[in-house]
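Repro:
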Amino acid sequence: MTRILILVTSLDRGGIETMIMNYYRVLDKKKYQFDFLINRRERGAYEEEIEKLGGMIFRMTNLSPLKYWRYKRELKDFLAAHPEYKIMHSHLEERSWWALNVAKAAGVKVRIAHMHNAYPLEFTPKSLYRQWLRWRMRWSRTAITERLACSQLAGKWLYGRKTFQVVANAINLEQFVFDAAKRKKTRASLGLDDDCVLIGQFGRITHQKNPLMMPKVLRELGGKYRLMYVGKGEMEGELKSEVEKLGVEKRVLMVEPTGKIEDYYAAIDVLVQPSWHEGLSLVVIEAAASGLMVLESDRVTKEVDVAERVAFLDIADLDLWQKAVKKIEVQTSRARTRASERAVELIREHGYDVKCAVKWLEDYYKEVL
């Protein structure tokens, strides 16, 4: 059995972490085992499950410019103490450059960079630092042995013209098939009647996800519309202030993500994702599997529309988003079930069923070793 060292910032319920866990749960543990090297001291939502599955979790200092030399020293010492790792699979995106160079010097044979986003150029210190690392990744000739990405857009952003492989952000399809009983139970727990149109925005409440936009759209919609955020993040306080300022606080629900995220998909009537940028969003695939229509920002790749249930809208045109939401009707259980079944077929055909995709990943690890 080969133990693979997975590098990721934290083990909370974010898109990257959820994608890793989707594969990890169905990975053949007799052949491969994931261990995790993370950059957070606080315990993440997935850690207990990982430990039950046999994975080990190690902690490093936060990977930031001011702490790089400390990180490099800690990682060097860690790899010297753990020569068993022949594969390092880094999900640190452009910051993988730091870790993979240390891994090369330590003699780790397979050093995989995995990109999950495509960032716009902004003239901020964080963005300029990211762009600098991006070019270091492109110029690197020996630190990276394998290049992966969640989409063509994300891969070209980081690797440029260098060859890379796209790995599907695959999901457990059966988990997200629409269930009318779950819808009824979840909506009742939220205090919603059958005629209410529930708009959902799922994911971290951060600048990237543009969380302050939808309350403005909601303000112009009728009283039967509700908006629900499923997630948490550093902009929660700002979002609550914006909701109160707009006078829509009684029509906005905020819930923390749980292990039963499929219940919330069943409860909503449309998913919105007005993100400034994405690599290839996992929540869009999950929502489509539940038979939902998705209103998506025009700033992201159309590769995400594997189930033909996404409308791409101008992120700056709030009136367009309002009109698109108004076209959404509450589906009957029968119609929603049919939509879910058809979407699942298309998602599976495109290779996003994790039970099939994991076979590719296992063969990939075998090949690169």
